[in-house]
Amino acid sequence: MKTPQHDWKPMESSTAGARCRNCGTHVTQQFARVFGDNGDVVHGCPGCTTYREMQSGGHLPRE
Length: 63
Fold this sequence. Notes:
By secondary structure, the protein is mainly α. The chain has helices at 29-35, 51-56. It has one domain. The chain is built from 2 helices and no strands. The protein is elongated and about 55 Å long. The relative contact order is 0.18.
């Protein structure tokens, strides 16, 4: 008896809602947790901002 294999990929988003607010590019939920704001909203992704800005928080809107 074979057990069913699931194609679970932890780096992929389980929902279609994770998108960059700046350019609309799809991002994973994990990316949103790491580089998003406190609500996991992504304001800049690798497609529209630099990693240096993302690491320093320079891509987040000023309040």
